[in-house]
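User: My advisor, Dr. K., asked me to get a structural model of this assembly before our group meeting. I'm new to this, so sorry if the format is off. These are the inputs:
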Amino acid sequence: MSQVSEPSSPRSLTRQRASLLPDGAGRWALGGGLTVRTLSDVLEQLDALDGPEVALDLAELRTLDTAGAYLLVQLDERLRAQGGSLRLSGQSPDHQAVLERVAESMPKPETDAVVKLSLMGWFDQLGRKVVAALDGFTQVLAMLGLFLAKLVYLLRHPSEFRTTALVHHCHQVGWKAVPIVALMGFLIGVVLAFQGSVQLRQFGAEIFVVDLIAISILRELGILLTAIIVAGRTASSFTAAIGSMKMREEIDAMRTLAIDPAVALFVPRILALLIVLPILGMIANVMGLFGGAMMAWIELGISPGMFVSRLLDDTSLDHVIVGFVKAPVFALIIGVIGCHAGMQVGGNAESLGTQTSSAVVRAIFMVIVADALFSVFFAILGI
Amino acid sequence: MAETVIELRGIINQFGTTRVHDNLDLDVYRGEVLGVVGGSGTGKSVLLRCIAGLRPPQGGSIRIFGQDALNCSEAERRAIDARMGVMFQDGALFSSLTVRENVEVPMRTLPNLNAKLRAELADLKIAMSGLPYAAGGKYPSELSGGMRKRAGLARALALDPEIVFLDEPTAGLDPIGAAAFDELIKALSETLGLTVFMVTHDLDSLHATCDRIAVLAEKRVMYTGTMQEMLHIEHPWVHEYFHGPRARAAVDTLERNA
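Assistant: The format is fine. Below is the predicted structure of the whole assembly, which you can bring to the meeting.
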């Protein structure tokens, strides 16, 4: 059944406006084109139609699409519910077919079970969230365990180890992060020296700016800020890479091909982080001391020679050790959270986005929590 | 012969130095279901993307509804696009929206529809595509492949287009689902007067739905005609295609039903 019953193609009149005109008592004539684009012309009029029997003449109607037919069928249903009826006349066979098609597939809403908000419901939600959070934590621990287990396995089966992947990830995670980490370290040193000198000058204790810079950078800031930057860069890229593989069933494919995703994907990534994070931390430390020394020279006139000798005499090696002990822990946190979030990605692109951002947030948060715990730990040990 | 809605003349499509289409001509008539077949790599999908305006050809002319679709203003092209709907292979639904919201997306371009009516019309399109009402509130990732295709069709039909492009509508469906989809397309094209441009590999679907078949081979449309005419063409590829072991079964069913 084609629609070329009229000389000028009826569909070219899509833009034609719809009109509803009275045609005697209880009789109406629908004219023009009643389509999804022109519905609003007669929508209010049709809604206002009322009465026991409404007759609608469609003889002058040129075009009718499913949206228009929907209005008519809906009108019919409404009138019928009120005990009235709608009588259509003069419709062309094409329009009748559309009307029948629409009438047959009128959507029938299913009444959804209304969820009542109550105190119990609120507790229920809260409980579920707490359990889900604990569950997520257990899963991250499971990922850590998986990594360690696979690491031991690889020590016993070194031939399965993917050296190329490790080098590649070291390059991605480490080498490419050097500029940003170096710049960050330098700026932190500059800021500390500047702020410290302003305060210390009041007491005439300018020389202690060396201790301030050395202790704060070596012990805390160098490695912590490096870890935060790496968490932002790397946790997100781990999640995105593994997540998109998960989304396209590549990980399932690996499993069927007897490739262990943990060996192929997780171990090289986390191991690369373990290797490069201390190196990046060292770069940040050196650059921080350099920046601090420069600023101390400019601002307070402490010569580089004096800075170095003061640094070597006064700063205990403990600070450096305390700083570097944290690096592998931070690396593990970032790598494990990144890989775990990647494996949580579901079937759609949106979950990739949410998992990526949540991986970054969680990694940074956990790094800071771990740093706080380290502080308490070292304070108790008295180092 | 009915009015020509799509007219392709001398279409040239090229990727680097490989020419996919060379001087390709094709007419699509109003109200027909045209099936486009061809071996892998003969550029069926490229042709579809060309007409749908997703990829301008390197040469030739495309007229849609009698209007030049390549050399026209952006507003004119949008007006043409508004009268066409495309169903992509896997539905290409927006994954962050529910099915109902997906179907509503094209309707949002019309300022005269209020939110309630839009949702109702979306539900109508979902029902017309043969999906249960509850599917409207679900996300694409919660649907099976066949349901995603139906949802894609519902979105393509959202604005009651005159031409619908279907890219392998039955690929990946089970035979029952595929047959139901064929019937759906046939029924929609008959009752709504839709013109359907369908790229397919499915011989059953060609038998069941297509009024006319266009065979892409040797960089152009080699043959067009009905299924019966296709069976008598001597060209080796066409012969193999319509007389191969898989085709025979489909032809048998056709003859049994005839």
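One thing worth pointing out at the meeting: The interface with chain B takes residues 1-4, 9, 11-12, 14, 35-40, 43, 65-67, 70, 74, 94, 97-98, 100-102, 105-110, 346-350 of chain A (CB under 8 Å).

User: Perfect, thanks a lot.
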